[in-house]
Amino acid sequence: MIRVLLVDDQPLIRSGFRALLDAEDDIHVVDEAGNGADGVALARRHRPDVVLVDVRMPGVDGIEATRQIAADPDLAAVHVVVLTNYGMDEYVLGALRAGAAGFLVKDILPEDFLHAVRVAARGDALLAPSITRRLIERFVAHPPSARATTALRELTAREREAVALVAEGLANGEIAVRMAISPVTAKTHINRAMTKLHARDRAQLVVIAYESGLVTPPRS
Questions:
Q1: Which SUPFAM superfamilies does this entry report, sorted A to Z (predicted)?
Q2: Would the CA dihedral through 76, 120, 61, 39 be positive or negative?
Q3: Can you say whether residue 60 is alpha, beta or left, with left for phi > 0 and alpha for psi between -120 and 50 degrees?
Q4: Which residue has the higher pLDDT, 216 or 191?
């Protein structure tokens, strides 16, 4: 059973998501919060698999709530997914840097929303990779970060290749095909890269790939 915590300051949004999620046999909403501070407290109480948090809320916003959850070692298995609108792109990179596993736009189709929650619970793929790449390409800092570039030197050539493919939005099976290796080996490369780069999850690997210049956003 996938346990989900909803954090949004709009009761109508929360009730809509809750109805959709609780209708599924394999998903259960453990609780709701109307602000980021309560969301962090409830995450510590319930330790859900997935926290869906609105990026903009009064007081403690979604980015700060994400940062607090990601920084808590007792919540290392919790995957935070940020809820946003298309008009709020500037917040997304901040959320990923804070430790979010990915994000969803609020006008997503119900079936895609449910699939994304399941993917987030597994922790094996970045959500909405095409949208994520587009936003990171728009807002990532240039020139490349010296710190991120230095960190990449700890990786082997194959690990760097795997990280670059993660940044393209590929899942482990697709990375295995591109690199002509087994899915298990692909996962090993990614896990070792995450350890060496002190990345919480694949989302942070994407940020590092762009910030280091390993992956270069296309020029518009």
A1: C-terminal effector domain of the bipartite response regulators, CheY-like
A2: negative
A3: beta
A4: 191
Q: What is the band of 32 on the pLDDT scale with cuts at 50, 70, 90?
A: very high
Residue 152 has pLDDT above 60, yes or no: yes
Q: How far apart are CA 70 and CA 47, in angstroms?
A: 12
Residue closest to 126 by CA, chosen among 100, 93, 105: 100
DSSP string over the chain = -EEEEEE-S-HHHHHHHHHHHHTSTTEEEEEEESSHHHHHHHHHHH--SEEEEES--SSS-HHHHHHHHHH-GGGTT-EEEEEE-GGGGGGHHHHHHHT--EEEETT--HHHHHHHHHHHHHT-S-SSHHHHHHHHHHHS-SS--HHHHHHHTTS-HHHHHHHHHHHTT--HHHHHHHHTS-HHHHHHHHHHHHHHHT-SSHHHHHHHHHHTTSS-PPP-
- The pair of structure tokens assigned to 201 is 């999850």
Quote the pTM value: 0.74
Q: What is the mean pLDDT of residues 146-152?
A: 78
| CA 20 from centroid of its chain's CA atoms | 21
How far, in Å, CA of 5 to CA of 213, rounded?
A: 35
Q: Looking only at Cα atoms, what is the longest distance across the chain?
A: 49
Residues 6+ apart with CB under 8 A from 3: 28, 30, 46, 48, 49, 50
Closest by CA position to 2, among listed 46, 60, 54: 46
